[in-house]
Amino acid sequence: MRSILFALASLVVAAGCGDDDRGPRYRAWGHATPRPGGTLTFAVGGNVATLDPAHAYDEASLYPLYYLHDTLLGYDGTTLVPALAETWSISPDGLTISFELRDGVVFHDGTPLTAAAFDHAWRRVLRAPDSPFGRFLAPLVGAEAFAAGERDDLPGVRVDGPRRLVLTLAAPDAAFANVLAMKFTAPLVDGAAVTNGTGPFALDAWSAGERVTLRRHPRYWRPGRPHLDAIVMRESVPRELAFLQFERGELDTIDQLTLPDWLWIAAHDGWRPYVHQTPQMSVFGDRFDVTRPPFDDVRVRRALNHAVDKARLVRLLGDRGVPAHGLLPPGLAGRDDELAPYAYDPARARALLAEAGHADGLELEYVLPKDETAERLAQSMQADLAAVGVRVRLRVLSWAAFLDETTRAGGAPFSQTSWFQDYPDASSFLDTRLHSRMIAPDGEPSNNDSFYANPEVDRLLDEARRTRDPSARAAAYRQVERIVHADAPWLFGYHPVGVEVVQPYVRGFALHPVWGRDFRDVWLDLAPDGARVPR
Amino acid sequence: MTRAVLGRLAGAVLTLWFAVTVTFAIVALVPADPARAVVGPHATAEDLARVRAHHCLDRGLAARYGCFVGRLARGDLGTSLRTQRPVADVLLDRVGPTALLAGAALLLQLAIGVPLGVWAARRRGRWPDAATGAATLALHATPAFVLATVGLYVVAYRWGWFPLGGYGAGGWDRVRHLALPAMTLAAGGIAAYAHLVRHQVGGALDSDHVRTARAKGAPERAVVWRHALRPALGPVIALVGLDAGVLLGGAVVVESAFAWPGLGRELVLAAHDLDLPVILGGTLVATTATVVASLLADSAHALLDPRARRP
Questions:
Q1: In this predicted model, what pLDDT tens digit does every residue of A190-210 receive, in sequence order?
Q2: Which residues of chain B have pLDDT under 50?
Q3: Judging by beta carbons within 10 Å of its beta carbon (0-12, 13-18, 19+), is residue A442 exposed, middle or buried?
Q4: Hey, which CATH number is domain A282-496, 3.10.105.10, 3.10.50.40, 3.20.20.370, 3.30.365.10?
Q5: Quick check: helix, strand or coil at residue A439?
Q6: What average pLDDT does the segment A303-310 reach?
Q7: Do A3 and A492 form a contact (C-beta atoms < 8 A)?
Q8: Which of A235, A239, A245, A421 is the mutation pick for testing B, counting most B CBs within 10 A?
Q9: I need a surface site. Which of A52, A100, A383, A429 has the fewest CB within 10 A?
Q10: Which positions 82-111 of B are in contact with A (Cβ < 8 Å)?
Q11: Closest approach of chain A CAs to the CA of B305, in angstroms?
Q12: In terms of CA atoms, which chain B residue is nearest residue A428?
């Protein structure tokens, strides 16, 4: 028996050894200009729930939509720019937005784009009871009554000929234009499939749970784009498996590496030129229920912020993060870049706790979702807090139970939290998470799950929402940032840095600050016959 | 006879009802809101209220049970909360890959496990017997996720003998993709069959009727395969009947590890999102498969062994 075990062990060890050089297996051919053609293959961990823009909100489902559908507006960096709209203008009172559509845009099935296609798609979203997106259109005149079935016309959306679309808002809303870059607002042809879009790639096949195949839209409106013939997205591939597939060359690009895989890549010089990094439009941390003791005392909240070593949290992510001083990620207008994260200062934390009457320490329970990264960081925080006399018991819940437990009044008062932008605007973080309007009555789930209600913050947020001048808006948000930093309704954690590693022959790739991985301009630098070139 | 058959069928229906009810109770006990799975973590309280009303999630436990199980009884599996697709379509897509995987695993188990058991039985008491016993015990004791990880890393990645997960494009490519997950799923079963056959055949080889067969001058091959193995087949077939449940359970782990788009992985995803209609539908399919396999095994047993036909 022992000899069998020994033989097995040696087999595994022998199999694991012998990796002298594990840099990229392929190299770029060296074309000077983009070479058209080829198929790009990547994998995602989740499975595609739906390809219907009215319903897709999860990462895996949104990836294909990104290529299938174009919208009125898009982003250059985090700045809104016209996409399907050729030009757009906002009336001086901020209530009317007019769009001239681009000429010569056709859907995948050859139907020319008209303004009516937007009207059709938006009515559809408003009337879909299971859609999470209808509320984003609520600022349009009559949208809420239309959604409730109280009226059958939608006066906020006026189709003025085939190429002119005029929107009317019930009140000025400086952030609303961002909604017109969200995928659920993409135009649809009445009676055609919901995957029939105007984007650079059309749906070739979807084998649910296995893969989505997209092929080039030959009549795409941007000249010379896309370069690729096809994109294949493999679904539900565990991250560890995806990395093996990437290393062996089955995948052309990979993101969301596990910590061991990331450290392995980072340690190999051969991979360095092919690693792309950019801060993501999201924030991670821990929220306090500021209405419940001991978190109703701002000194306790500040003490905990001082007690946690955020630099270590970031190191535990393999340096794929930036410590946070508030909710707004780097690069977002309105972020106060002069604010620094709470300094790691256990002595100050102890003093603040003593001041608040907790000189003998505290016992807390902390709730987190079942997630490897969340658990690793929670243990680091637990150790930091123990050092200042705060004993923390960790309670791990499934994702669904976690959401329920941490968003209702009376639920867990101290838990892990995170927020991903709906669109790159300060309001998408601050209004949603900290405006008192987002506290739901009767113990219903609240997006403001700190139950933080500060009239001054509410006033500034409302004012910023109405203000059109970008610098005045940014100033108002910076003021909110400073108040929130001082009030500390969260234990501010970090902003993740997205990392993408591509094969050397993948060219034209850049991580987009809004969309993350973006393959629209990618081309494959392969041999003239289309073969990959071994290194 | 008719009475016995009707009795078995009634028992089967009762089993299905029990499985669905227990599953419903477990999902209902999870302190979480399935409406979240429909509209996501960014949803507002109004979004959630609307979705709950639309899917009869805003009522009491008894009303929800009536709502889901009543529809189930009428043959309507409902609509997936997360994908808005009919549950019947979702499951129909998934049954094929799982049936292929489980079928291949069962074939491997029988094709390797039974001859291995016979081989060991003929050498009982000697070292090949002990080695087989130890090896099968070790195999049986190794969890599927360990085998899957080692298989993927060593056999597929380092040696490059098989593809790194996935379903393949069909034809020969499908077979290549099937091989490693099927072997992983079959591993524990190979050990179980080998162990069972070793003991059944080993016992039979010492029995009177085998001695008689030998004394009559039957060739050794016939003695082993006809006189010793045939009576051992009863328990083997009973094990096949029980195996359906074991294979479906193992498929949950193996399919997830190998990115195999089957029923097991679908159920994991549905459980994660509390997608009750898919969870109940999947449970119903898995329970039906187990019950049917068990009924078939009993019938086959009765055909092979007259003793089993007695009521």
A1: 999 999 999 999 999 999 889
A2: none
A3: exposed
A4: 3.10.105.10
A5: coil
A6: 98
A7: no
A8: A245
A9: A383
A10: 82-85, 90, 93-94
A11: 38
A12: B42
pLDDT digits (tens, 9 = 90+) for A269-295: 999 999 999 999 999 999 999 999 999
Contact between A422 and B165 using a beta-carbon 8 Å cutoff: no
Residue window 237-296, chain B: list those with CB within 8 Å of chain A: 256-259, 261, 265-266, 269, 272-274
Per-residue pLDDT at A1 exceeds 50: no
Fold of B89-308: MetI-like fold (1.10.3720)
- Chain B segment 36-65 residues within 8 A of A by beta carbon are 36-51, 54
pLDDT in tens, B222-236: 888 888 888 788 888
Cβ neighbours of residue B43 under 8 Å, at least 6 residues apart?
A132, A445, B35, B36, B51
Please state the pTM of the whole predicted model: 0.90
Please state, in angstroms and as integers, the Cα–Cα distance from residue B47 to each residue in A80, A298, A402, B38, B180, following that order: 27, 32, 19, 10, 44
Mark yes or no for CB contact A11/B154 under 8 Å: yes
Query: Per the omega criterion (within 30 degrees of 0), is the bond before B143 cis?
Result: no
Give pLDDT tens digits for B77-115.
888 888 888 999 999 989 999 999 999 999 999 999 999
A472-498 pLDDT tens trace: 999 999 999 999 999 999 999 999 999
Largest alpha-carbon pair distance within chain B? 85
Query: Does B131 contact A at CB distance below 8 Å?
Result: yes
Which residues have a Cβ under 8 Å from the Cβ of A204 and sit 6 or more positions away? A213, A214, A215, A230
CATH match of A70-185 with 3.90.660.20:
no
Specify whether the CB–CB gap between A404 and B48 falls below 8 A. Answer: no
Q: Answer yes or no: same fold for A70-185 and A282-496.
A: no
User: Could you give the 3-state DSSP secondary structure of residue B84?
Assistant: coil
| Among the partner residues B32, B44, B51, nearest to A130 by beta-carbon distance | B51
User: What does A202-224 look like in DSSP terms, one character per residue?
Assistant: EEEEEETTTEEEEEE-TT-SSTT
Show me where the domains of chain B are located. 2-73, 89-308
Q: What is the ipTM of this complex?
A: 0.86
pLDDT confidence of residue A8 = 52
Interface contact B84-A55, CB threshold 8 A: yes
Q: Could you tell me if B30 lies within 8 Å of chain A, comparing CB atoms?
A: yes
Token duo for residue B65: 């049970």
Domain ranges across chain A: 70-185, 282-496
Residue of A520, A506, A528, A508 whose CA lies nearest to A217: A520
- Nearest of B177, B149, B181, B295 to residue B247 by alpha carbon: B181
d(CA B10, CA B91): 25
Are B252 and B101 a contacting pair, CB within 8 Å?
Answer: no
pLDDT tens readout for residues A49-95: 999 999 999 989 999 999 999 999 999 988 999 999 999 999 999 99
Residue range B167-193, pLDDT digits in tens: 988 889 999 999 999 999 999 899 999
Q: Any alpha helices (H) in B144-275, and if so which ranges?
A: 144-150, 172-205, 208-215, 220-222, 229-258, 263-272
For A238, the closest of B39, B135, B257 (CB atoms) is: B257
Cβ separation A4–B138 shorter than 8 A: yes
> Mean of the pLDDT values across residues A202-231?
95
